[in-house]
Write a structure and sequence with these properties.
The structure holds two protein chains of two kinds. By secondary structure, chain A is an alpha/beta fold. Helix content of chain A is about 35%, strand content about 30%. Chain A contains eight helices and twelve strands. The longest helix of chain A has 16 residues. In chain B, the strands form two sheets. In chain B, strands 1, 4, 5, 7, 8, 10, 11, 13, 15, 17, 19 and 21 form a twelve-stranded mixed beta sheet that branches. Chain B has a ten-stranded mixed beta sheet with strand order 3-2-6-9-12-14-16-18-20-22, with helices on one face. In chain B, β2 and β3 form a beta hairpin. The two termini of chain B are about 40 Å apart. In chain B, α2 packs antiparallel against α4 and α5 crosses α6. The longest helix of chain B is centred in the C-terminal third of the chain and has 18 residues. Chain B is α/β, with parallel strands linked by helices. Classes of the chains: A alpha/beta, B alpha/beta. The interface between A and B is medium-sized, with 30 and 26 residues.
């Protein structure tokens, strides 16, 4: 089986300051990876780089991503192109977009992927039905469709809205950046439920999280510890439990 | 505020500008169209004012950023009163896409019966011309364009809403101008509408403006809300490409009455809107919001004035605009809280998004407070699109150029999302979508 994404010796900096210092990671289709680590270890930087944020500069290394059975240079692709090819980043701090309804936003995004993939776009009626089934899944009221994207949403509502977007866009590689932070236990279950429903043999999920709590609901195949800009330890789900118990200090010696 | 017309020395007073083009058009109108006695009286009253003032000068504070001198270089002509047999095609003019309780269409200020249908229980729509009713027309307030409106009008339309009536879906009042496409000849079209909303009545009104050919649109509306009335009102300008517009709206809000009024300035070469709101009695409340979009070399100027005359009155204003290319925007908002208007609230905000380094906005919020127990705030922001926002949309697969367009439209569309009347909220959002779908903001794409 081909890898979905291969990150090799990735070095990156923000405002000239190195943040990632030789990160390696391979994710295969069907897998769930959790990336844990202390604050400032570079977790969010990794997610932003994979999504193509312009403020992060890759100084060394490579990221290859499978497109139509070929490993392509992900870093060469524009952010929208990555999304069209199935890369999805659930933002830690989702952006408010006043004046654009959730429905319009979702449909524009969805149809942009359809166009790119050469699939027929969905008309308004069909899309509106389709999106309603996804809303049920994340327990979101339909009135959110007519509201402006994330505008005036609570923290939990914004996170659920990210999961709704993920469910609608059905990505091959979903990266969730601290999606669990600030959620109460009910919201956490809803979010985890949405992620678990996305799982499938040809999709992969990368969970970036600070806490083990999320991993009670979404069971990872691999757990990595990111510290000082590189992966310092990898293991199975038991590593997360060990981190919960012992903290990160034993790895940072 | 000191203006040149208040100058003490007579030697600094300039001769009124533009009379040599206005006067011939006015005299020609009087020759062709005698009209009823009241109309002659109104026209003369208007003429008395513009003959003494002439066109506004940039030396007047209120007109500092919007020049009108070019109007003195053109030939004026009164927009023609067209009979049913001479009508142009209805297709030339915009159509309101939302739900409505009825539509009345004015062409060059006259009702077009065959294009109108509005039978709304409790609402009476009268033409002074057809019913020989003498209207009250004030010519001494607002800008000189209100006086010009009086002189070049053909009719006064009065809409009366009986006390206790409830009209939730808006009445659409379409006002179109039709000018001949003669080079350097401007047809001046002057619709005039009076709306009287009775005690405790609820009413919704959308004014939709458009036109064909070369014209100056100078519409005037007055809306009076009796005690406890609730009104939702919008003025949507989708004027022709070369159109010049000087719109005036004045609202007076009674005891515990509520009014939301929206100015949507979407197209036209030069637009100037004057809005005056009087909060006359305790408990009166007004929301006055606006949105404007301009690209190319277009110019859009909003001038608002709110007078808090009684205690416990509330006003809230939000004007948002997007300017691209070499477009120019102006916002001047004056809020005055009079001495008796204790415990009043006033908030005013103007946000402009500049999509190019050559676009320009002048914004001037102004507060005058004579009472001591009030809450008042005002502010203005001028900015560019946020790169994080653009990235968020790109990360959802929306191409960069589309993302910028979507954000720019959303920036102003935000105002339409605030409309409280549900039917109008939907209809106005749709009309903004439709008009802005044609706005590419191409020049903006390198600016972020």
């Amino acid at each position: 089986m081909m890898n979905l994404i291969e990150i090799k010796n990735l070095h990156a900096s923000v405002d000239g300051k190195p943040v990632l210092k030789g990160l390696d990671l391979i994710v295969k289709p069907g897998e769930v990876h959790a990336i844990m680590g202390p604050n400032g270890s570079g977790k969010s930087t990794l997610s932003k780089i994979l999504a193509g944020h312009p403020a992060y500069e890759v100084t060394e290394g490579s990221v290859k991503y499978e497109v139509n059975l070929k490993m392509k240079d992900l870093l060469e692709m524009a952010p929208e192109e990555r999304a069209q090819e199935g890369v999805f980043l659930a933002f830690q701090y989702p952006i408010e977009v006043p004046g654009v309804s959730n429905l319009t936003f979702l449909r524009t995004a969805f149809n942009s992927i359809c166009r790119h993939q050469g699939v027929e776009e969905m008309n308004e009626d069909a899309f509106s039905k389709f999106v309603r089934t996804k809303m049920k899944m994340v327990s979101m009221d339909e009135r959110f469709l007519d509201r402006a994207v994330n505008t005036g949403f609570s923290g939990g509502e914004k996170k659920r809205n990210e999961i709704l977007q993920m469910a609608v866009l059905s990505p091959r590689l979903a990266i969730l950046d601290e999606t669990d932070s600030g959620l109460d236990i009910d919201a956490l279950r809803i979010v985890a439920d949405g992620v678990n429903k996305l799982k499938g043999p040809d999709r992969a999920i990368v969970l970036i999280t600070h806490y083990q709590r999320l991993l009670d609901y979404i069971v990872p195949d691999h757990v990595h510890v990111l510290a000082g800009g590189k992966i310092v330890e990898s293991g199975d789900k038991s590593l997360a439990l060990k981190l919960e118990e012992k903290g990160y200090d034993w790895l940072l010696q | 505020m000191k203006t040149i017309s208040t100058g003490l020395s007579t030697s600094t007073k300039r001769a009124p500008v533009g009379l040599d083009v206005i006067e011939p058009a006015y005299l020609a109108l009087l020759r062709e169209d005698e009209g009823p006695a009241w109309l002659k009286k109104v026209r003369e009253a208007g003429a008395k004012r513009w003959r003494s003032e002439g066109l506004p000068s940039k030396r007047e504070e209120k007109w500092r950023y919007t020049g009108t001198a070019f109007l003195a270089e053109a030939n004026w002509i009164a927009a023609e009163a067209l009979g049913e047999d001479d009508l142009p095609s209805r297709e030339l003019f915009p159509t309101y896409p939302g739900e409505a309780s009825g539509e009345v269409v004015l062409l060059n200020g006259l009702i077009v019966d065959s294009w109108s249908s509005a039978m709304i229980p409790g609402v009476t729509i009268t033409s002074s011309l057809h019913h020989s009713i003498e209207p009250m027309v004030a010519v001494d307030r607002g800008s000189v364009f209100e006086a010009l409106n009086a002189s070049f009008m053909h009719d006064v339309i009065t809409i009366e809403v009986a006390p206790g009536t409830r009209v939730e879906k808006p009445l659409v009042l379409s006002q179109f101008a039709f000018g001949e496409d003669h080079l350097n000849e401007w047809a001046i079209a002057c619709p005039r509408v009076h709306v009287i909303v009775g005690k405790g009545a609820e009413f919704a009104l959308v004014e939709l403006f458009g036109g064909e050919g070369r014209y100056v649109h100078a519409p005037v509306i007055e809306i009076e809300l009796a005690d406890g009335a609730r009104v939702s009102h919008a003025r949507v300008s989708i004027e022709g490409e070369s159109a010049v517009r000087f719109g005036s709206a004045r609202l007076s809000v009674g005891r515990d009455a509520f009014c939301e009024t929206y100015q949507f300035s979407l197209s036209g070469h030069l637009l100037r809107e004057d809005l005056s709101v009087l909060l006359t009695l305790p408990g009166a409340e007004a929301v006055l919001d606006g949105l404007y979009v301009a690209s190319g070399s277009r110019h859009v100027d909003h001038s608002t004035s709110v007078e808090h005359l009684s205690p416990n009155t509330t006003s809230a204003q939000l004007y948002k605009g997007v300017l691209a290319d070499e477009a120019r925007g102006v916002f001047s908002g004056r809020v005055r809280i009079h001495r008796d208007a204790q415990q009043s609230n006033a908030a005013q905000l103007n946000n402009t998004l500049l999509l190019s380094s050559k676009a320009e906005v002048d914004t001037k919020p102004e507060l005058e407070i004579d009472a001591d127990d009030v809450k008042a705030s005002h502010g203005a922001t001028i900015g560019q699109l946020d790169a994080e926002h653009v990235f968020y949309l790109q990360a959802r697969s929306i191409p960069r150029a589309d993302a910028i367009r979507m954000l720019a439209r959303g920036f102003v569309q935000d105002v339409a999302f605030r409309v409280r009347n549900p039917a109008m909220n939907e209809g106005l959002r749709e009309i903004v979508d439709v008009v802005l779908a044609g706005e590419s903001f191409e020049g903006a794409l390198d600016g972020v």
